[in-house]
Amino acid sequence: MKYIVSLVIVVLILAGGWYFFMNKPAGIPELSETPGTATTTEGTATTTENGARAPEMSIGKSVQGRDIMAYSFGTGETELLFVGGIHGGYEWNTALVAYELIDHLKANPTAVPENLRVTVIPVLNPDGLHKVVGTTEKFAKESVPATEAGTVPGRFNGNGVDLNRNFDCDWQETGMWRNTEVKGGSAAFSEPESQAMREFVETYNPKAVVVWYSAAGGVFASNCHDGVLPETTTLTKLFADASRYPAYQSFNFYEITGDMVNWLAKEGIPAISVLLTNHTDTEWDKNRAGVEAVINHYAQQE
Fold this sequence. Notes:
This protein is an alpha/beta fold. It is 31% helix and 17% strand.
């Protein structure tokens, strides 16, 4: 008799465990393979369960609902920010060089000193990149369809706005790209992508910002009518000397309104534009040298 009772108890315990497993309440997180990395929000993690900043997070959504991702390396207090893909599919090589930086930092975790955190936003305009490349994740250069030189597929966001005309330095509703009029949005920061960038900058206060564009082959300092910040001059020279791109104190090929790095200058943040030489190559060796020079410079600062 006692064996029958014991068997019944075992069956009841197993049945109860199965019921709980099949009816687990929503909100109980799955166990993570790495302690302290469970997602605390729906979808993309923004913080770990211990409150630390997640190494991969969405900083916002594009017009068409795609995530704008940021990848962070290191845990230091000094933030360095690298940005690609503001002109989406028109300048897809700027997204690709940012992804190459991400791969480099993943493969070389000691490349970021203890006092630094390096964040890479590879695609600020995911809708524009997706329009040409078909993805917002890393892609092969060979998979990009050929486009006619001088055309602008994917340059604008889902609202048809040139994001590099939507920031708060000399913003105008209609901006210029070479000799062509482009939309600057209904107001400065009218677009969700530029809003995401502004919120990131306000939250994490980067010490320096490098933004990739194409194509002119040079490093350009930023300013918004108050002159070039001394640290921006240093940053420009550092990247240019290491990469062997020529350095320029300003971008004066044509008038630009609502430019992102000039807005950063207005906010007192050193920022440079690094223009790749063409629209297809990442020139990774040159840019890696520039990035390493910037990292080493700020690693030596308190």
